[in-house]
Amino acid sequence: MDALPTFDLVLFGGTGDLAMRKLLPALYRRSAAGQLASDSRIVGAARSPLTREQYLEKVEATCRAHLGKQFDPQCWARLAGQISYCKVDANSDEDFAALRAPLAGREATVRVFFLSTAPDLFAVTCEGVARHGLVTPHARVVLEKPLGHDARSSAEIDERVGAIFAEGQIFRIDHYLGKETVQNLLALRFGNTLFEPLWRRGRISHVQITLAEDLGVERRADFYDRTGALRDMVQNHILQLLSIIAMEPPASSDPDALRDEKLKVLRALRPLAGREALSRTVRGQYKAGATNGRPVVGYRQESGVSPDSTTETFVALKAQIDSWRWAGVPFYLRTGKRLQEKLSEIVLTFEDVPLAMFDRPAPPVSLNRLVIRLQPHEGITLSVLGKYPGEAMLLRPVELSLDFCETFKTPRLDAYERLLNDIVKGNLTLFMRRDELQAAWRWIDPIREAWLQYDYEPKTYTAGSWGPAAASALIGRDGFAWSNEL
Length: 486
What we know:
Elements: E1 7-12, H1 17-32, E2 41-46, H2 52-67, H3 73-80, E3 83-87, H4 93-98, H5 100-103, E4 110-115, H6 122-131, E5 139-144, H7 151-162, E6 170-173, H8 180-190, E7 204-212, H9 221-246, H10 255-268, H11 274-279, E8 281-287, E9 289-291, E10 294-296, E11 314-320, E12 330-336, E13 343-350, E14 369-375, E15 379-387, E16 395-403, H12 404-407, H13 415-425, H14 434-453, E17 459-462, H15 469-476
Parallel strand pairs: 1-2, 1-4, 2-3, 4-5, 5-6, 7-12, 8-17
Antiparallel strand pairs: 7-13, 8-11, 9-10, 11-12, 13-14, 14-15, 15-16
Helix pairs in contact: 1-2, 1-3, 6-7, 7-14, 9-10, 9-14, 10-14
């Protein structure tokens, strides 16, 4: 893999959970692979008054913990030589002035400001680096989700950040788009002629997207209780996956060509508002139960969660896209915490044959399905019917599987590794554009408004289950079932 251009990365929120669990281990792996130029620099920036040595101790400890046997002291020593630390409070001009020192004389170098902070600090931080002359023509800013809490707050962030950085310098990151299987979804659709004639109404009966977690809120209780599953997962991850599944073939591989097509999908989503939003959505909140064989408390008993919280930890929706390709094809979306297993998958179920000539299982088992698994094991499975051995013509399901780890025996990039590479190279393909973000919020906001208007409180579900029974009823009314219920 080619070496990256020399860069300076200023990691705001450099002591936070995301930086420690994901970003710094990702940088270690790229350094170990020989991709980081020796004169690149990484500057951790946070409010904690740490020395460089104290910061390196924290980073080394987290890299050892998350990398396990991959951790090599010699590789670490090389990376540690490129890391410095600067105390930066976003409200302190003195702190921003101190940030000039590690960047002095490097104005011609690619400069990345990665904002792994709360969204209410995005604009303030950008204004701080601009006020102290740190924004160069080669500068880029990376904004982690959530980008606001509704369309209005998101637009305000975009306005203030956009006053400092051009749109081509703004990288709105969604780590799901960096997953290898999402890249393979693009390859599957637009690199083969096999599926294109089938990728439409009349051939596909319905689509499911599931992003399930077996964990609870962990250390994010304060953030999560103010956000909920709809804004934490549906507004970004799920709608981005839906856009890739449903978009028209772009005219080229140019970043804006692909993002233009994704935007058309978001704009074609049929609005869910008022009582229709209630009938086509399910809110849930987990209560005490068991996951992975151990008892767990309910959401309201989690540390940092209000005991009378009405925040949803589960959402299921029925979405429809008013376009020629997808008119009449329902998209069922669901996500939740403390579910039975960790699972991220996309399932496209094809229409049944018009005439059943042979003895076979009853629907929906017999339907042909394309399952695109994002985690925990990345791969693609196509379910077809084949003849069961014997004299009689009995048809039974057979799976044609592609396991990416087994097929391509080569190290794969973690999602953040891929996205960090693209940021340094200036490739915007896998990042959200401003109009995409606004279109997503415009679809999400009326759903939340309907929930508030009609006091639609979450239905409880037992931790370790697949969510409220109402989610099964939502898809069952149309004669379908969630993939785990087949």
